[in-house]
Every structure is written in structure tokens, then in C-alpha cells.
């Protein structure tokens, strides 16, 4: 069994290229969790999915905690909500840096951080990628599958589906703030089915299909 590192937060020592955070906020919300994980959850940026105070992805905000509820329901997360204990699961953002309240990343800011996100994703080398929301789903489908042109990013229809990628299985997750009845249950059911399957074959299958 591989052992990348035992560090939980920022396991590869990434350093953000800029600091635009408000006083009291973390400069960046780094990747967090089990660096040997098979499941990698990918959010957008701290202002939406949380962590500007805790330094942990998917904390603090309504959307972040809703996603964390999925991880708890499926056995990936336990312990404190601001510093969960994760097993077989890693969390990170496409845009890790904190920004002033109410400010969203620009296209240039996303581009500045692409290499950091890509380096961490490939170092984790998970079997299952779980992008949360349209921005993260677009990024993952463009860069890690050959199938982006097949989809119009209608997240309601992509939610909890399986998409073969280049060495990965991609399971998009609709933005939690937009969930309606059945969306929580759908992603929980999909994750439970994957955990019950031989999902580790994803690497070989996806390489030939994607």
C-alpha cells in the first residue's frame, strides 16, 4: 500500500503565489485529509465552500457543511466539524487562496493557481474525483477527461453520475446550496455503491475508455 505522507493539511508544502486575504483569515485553504485517499473531493474557493478561518476545506459555510454531511453519512469523515478526521478521502479547492469578503476569483486568478491544483491532484492520484459545483466540474472534465465537449454543465443532470476520465472516475456533485429533495440521497447512494464495488479498477478501465 502506498504511503505518500502522514501530513493532514497541505501535505506537499504548497505555497500560494499571492495573499489577498482579509485580516484574520488564512492566506489560503490548502488540501486536507488522507493523502493516500482513493476519493478526492474538489471544491471551488474558500469564499463559497469555507475554511477561511479554520484552514480546512468544506467547513464554516452552509455549502461546505452540507458536503461534509455527505462524507459523514458515507463514513469518510468523523470528529469535529471544523477539523474532521478523514479516511480514504482528500479535500481541496481549484482556487485555494482566500479573498476579501464578497470578492470572487478572476479568470486570471484561477489560471495563476492551476499549476498548484494540478500538482496536488496528481500527487494524491485518487481513483475517484468528486468536483463540487460547475466551476470545479468544468475544470476536472476539461483537464482530466476527453469528454468535456459532451456536456453542457447542467449540474442537475450531472449530479451523482459516473464519467470515465484519463485514469480517473469523475462523479460531479451539484452545488450544495442548490440541492433539492433527493440530491443528498443521490450522492450518498452513489458513493455507497462505489465503496461496495471494485472501484480500484477505475485506473485501468478509465485509461482505455476516457
Which characteristics define this entry?
210 residues; single chain; alpha/beta; Uracil-DNA Glycosylase, subunit E; disordered C terminus; globular; six-stranded mixed beta sheet; two-stranded antiparallel sheet
Report on this model:
This is Uracil-DNA glycosylase family protein. It holds the Pfam family UDG. By secondary structure, the chain is α/β, with parallel strands linked by helices. The chain has a single domain, classed as Uracil-DNA glycosylase-like domain (Uracil-DNA Glycosylase, subunit E, 3-Layer(aba) Sandwich), CATH 3.40.470.10. The protein has 7 helices and 8 strands; from the N terminus they run ββααβββαβααββαα. A 6-stranded mixed sheet has the order 1-5-2-6-8-7. A two-stranded antiparallel sheet has the order 3-4. The radius of gyration is 16 Å and the shape is globular.
Number of helices: 7
CATH fold group = Uracil-DNA Glycosylase, subunit E
What CATH architecture would you give? 3-Layer(aba) Sandwich
What class would the helix/strand composition place it in?
A: alpha/beta
Average pLDDT level? 90
Unreliable runs? 204-210
CATH class: Alpha Beta
Gap from first CA to last CA: 26 Å
Largest sheet: 6 strands, mixed
Number of strands: 8
How many domains? 1
Helix fraction by DSSP (H/I, runs of at least 4): 25-40%
Computed over alpha carbons, the radius of gyration is 16 Å
Strand proportion:
5-15%
Amino acid at each position: 500500500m502506498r504511503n505518500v505522507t502522514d501530513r493532514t493539511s497541505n501535505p506537499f508544502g504548497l505555497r500560494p503565489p499571492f495573499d489577498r486575504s482579509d485580516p484574520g483569515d488564512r492566506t489560503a485553504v490548502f488540501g486536507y485529509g488522507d493523502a493516500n485517499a482513493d476519493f478526492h473531493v474538489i471544491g471551488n474557493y474558500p469564499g463559497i465552500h469555507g475554511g477561511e478561518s479554520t484552514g480546512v476545506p468544506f467547513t464554516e459555510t452552509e455549502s461546505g457543511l452540507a458536503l461534509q454531511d455527505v462524507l459523514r453519512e458515507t463514513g469518510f469523515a468523523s470528529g469535529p466539524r471544523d477539523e474532521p478526521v478523514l479516511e480514504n478521502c482528500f479535500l481541496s479547492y481549484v482556487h485555494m487562496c482566500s479573498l476579501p469578503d464578497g470578492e470572487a476569483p478572476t479568470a486570471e486568478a484561477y489560471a495563476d493557481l492551476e499549476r498548484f491544483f494540478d500538482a496536488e491532484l496528481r500527487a494524491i492520484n485518487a481513483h475517484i474525483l468528486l468536483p463540487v459545483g460547475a466551476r470545479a466540474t468544468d475544470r476536472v472534465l476539461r483537464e482530466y477527461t476527453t469528454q468535456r465537449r459532451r456536456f453542457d454543465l447542467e449540474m442537475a443532470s450531472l449530479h451523482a453520475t459516473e464519467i470515465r476520465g484519463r485514469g480517473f472516475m469523475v462523479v460531479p456533485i451539484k452545488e450544495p446550496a442548490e440541492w433539492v429533495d433527493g440530491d443528498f440521497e443521490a450522492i450518498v447512494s452513489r458513493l455507497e455503491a462505489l465503496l461496495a464495488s471494485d472501484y480500484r479498477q477505475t485506473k485501468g478501465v478509465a485509461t482505455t475508455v476516457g
